[in-house]
Amino acid sequence: MYVLKIRIKYSKLGNLRFIGHLDVMRYFQKEIRRAGLDVSYSKGYSPHQIISFAAPLAMGITSDGEYFDGEFESVTTSREMIDALNAVSVDEMKVTECVLLPDDAKNSMSVVSASDYVISFLDKAGTEERHNILDSVESFMSQDQIVILKKTKKSEREENIKPGIMTCELRDDQIYMLLSTGSEYNLKPELVMQALCAYAGVSHNQFHYHIHRLETYMDGPDGNIIPLYKAGSPF
Q: Could you read off the pLDDT of 191-206 as tens digits, one per residue?
């Protein structure tokens, strides 16, 4: 049976930053049912919706650029699907884009190559701490290598994360980062902040700043990165 591949972009804001990826998956499974969308199901004894998510977001981070792909038996229009999903959703989780993918399109999880973030400081961060970090960004990025001690469940090892930092710069009183994301190399903004704090001589405290993801990207046909929804077209 012919199915339609749809890519959906959504935001995750406010208190929903405290729910994990598995809860987000369950949330959209229920939302799709409540919206009455004609999603495809797998075959067998335990059928499930055929949807997959791109670049799961870490707990505590908000985002305007989250994605999942789904296979659908039939669709209406992009606008009607967006409205149907948002009508049964909370304000902190809203669908913003809905596009039809080409038949040969790879799923979003496999094509993600980068994400960008804005890091803003909270009131808990003192003035001196904030200034020391912000004043260090330019010289931090001028280093040939940025080496961190990366810990896993089984070991610790040094890693140079500089190749994964595509951009790190000041924007007003915030830090903007464009980082490698995906299966080839996945760099988390928390690790960059740990390295930056160490370079600035400041004790790293994850509760002194907030991370917000702006967009999730894939490699475009001309070699530049493009938002994931640009792989498809409204319908």
A: 999 999 999 999 999 9
